[in-house]
Amino acid sequence: MKKRVTLTFPKRTVQMAVTYRLAKDFNVAANIIRAQVAPNQIGKLVLDLLGDIDAIEAALEWMRSQDINVSLASREILIDEESCIDCGLCTGVCPTKALTLAPETFKLQFHRSRCVVCEQCIPTCPVQAISTNF
Questions:
Q1: pLDDT tens across the length of the chain (134 residues)
Q2: pTM, 2 dp
Q3: Rounded to an integer, what distance in angstroms lies between the CA atom of residue 124 and that of residue 32?
């Protein structure tokens, strides 16, 4: 099973080796999608968790017991097609090639299934046509 979660760490737990513990104690693989972690600051981590459903649930409960805020990530990238000028700047920063330009029309194409919601495209868009639903 695969589950995407957003973890918010209080300042005192930001240095905890969470991904190590997930693998060692729960046999859950953690693919880091996005991380904003710094010493003595609130940290955020977006993870794809892979493993047995019961192991993932146990891991989520353990993280909550450590005062880590766990929320299921249901965020998606949204593109305002009326505002988009098909400049292609976002395609250059997209690590998964979820954003491409059609070779024949040079129109922006969004392949939602490839998107990992890393949000690198959002600040790149000169007309602010890209956002998230979060």
A1: 888 888 998 888 877 889 999 999 999 999 988 888 888 888 888 888 999 999 999 999 999 999 999 988 667 899 999 999 999 999 999 998 999 999 999 999 999 878 878 889 999 999 999 998 75
A2: 0.58
A3: 22
